[in-house]
Description:
Elements: E1 2-6, H1 10-17, E2 24-26, H2 29-35, H3 39-49, E3 54-57, H4 63-74, E4 80-85, H5 88-100, E5 104-109, H6 112-120, E6 125-128, H7 130-135, H8 140-154, E7 159-162, H9 168-177, E8 181-184, H10 186-191, H11 196-212
Parallel strand pairs: 1-2, 1-8, 2-3, 3-4, 4-5, 5-6, 6-7, 7-8
Helix pairs in contact: 1-3, 4-5, 6-8, 8-9
Amino acid sequence: MQLFLDTTDIDVLKDLASTGLVDGVTTNPTLIARSGRPMLKVIAEICELVEGPVSAEVAAMDLDGMMAEGKKLAAIAPNVVVKLPLTREGLIATSEFAVQGIQTNVTLCFSAAQALLAAKAGATYISPFIGRLDDYGAQGMDLISEIRAIYDNYEFDTNILAASIRHTGHVTDAALAGADCATLPPKIFADLFKHPLTDLGISQFLSDWSKAGQSIL
């Protein structure tokens, strides 16, 4: 499963991308607004840091606006993925971008029926929001399983991008459910490296090695 970072923080991206484990980046208007910087400049900088897909979201809600903004975003770099809302107009734009060879990420998916429409429209990625469904009283992970079954039934090429990840358990469960990728806040990405037993084992090994009085070099 590919792991994307959900951030616009350039310093954080530089640090975590150095692990060689970051496959792409997702952004949204909220993250861009928090950065306080021009959107096009931020996306361009991210594309220079990460070779994988970088999702950049349109702000327009009408079809003409989505098409105009999407084309401008796609022109920033070859790895830009135009992010579109799962609305009627968003899916029409998705279909038109698919014909033009522009990659798309259809976001704010909360049902398998929506995911089916996105795949039929030719979306490159579908972003089901797991955490928000959990908050709503549903089982967000069930949606990943449902989408996986539908996509496998009809051999759709659309990638399932698990979003709204709240903890490391979500990452594991999404992988088990068959998600193709997941987008994580930097803190959760960093938490994937951690386990108390790993820390305990390292502490024990270092203590034993110190007592041995040896050196590898």
